[in-house]
Amino acid sequence: PGAGAASTSGADGGGDPILPHVVNRIALLAKSQCGSRFLQKRIVGGDAVYLKLVFGETITHFAELMMDLFG
């Protein structure tokens, strides 16, 4: 798996039914109001799986996301 790939098992995020649907879509989610809010809640909530996933999938999009309204 690549840098943005995540497993659905483990203490954090394990069994999360949403996780498979957001993998490889984080940068796109971050550009929408609802998606950005969803990701913020997961990160602030201390979900290590989402933290790793968000960082891994957005690192190559930082400049683009900094200029985006919700990114």
Could you explain the architecture of this structure?
The chain is mainly α and 71 residues long. It is built from five helices and no strands. The chain has helices at 19-22, 26-30, 33-44, 48-58, 62-66. It is globular, with a radius of gyration of 11 Å.
Query: Uncertain spans, ≥5 residues at pLDDT below 50?
Result: 1-11
- Strand segment count: 0
Q: Which class of secondary structure composition applies to the elements?
A: mainly alpha
What would you call the shape? globular
Average pLDDT rating: 83
DSSP strand content: under 5%
Kindly summarize this structure in a few lines:
Helix content is 52%, strand content 0%. With 71 residues, it is mostly helical.
Please outline the helices and strands.
Layout: H1 19-22, H2 26-30, H3 33-44, H4 48-58, H5 62-66
List keywords for this structure.
71 residues; mainly alpha; 5 helices; globular; disordered N terminus
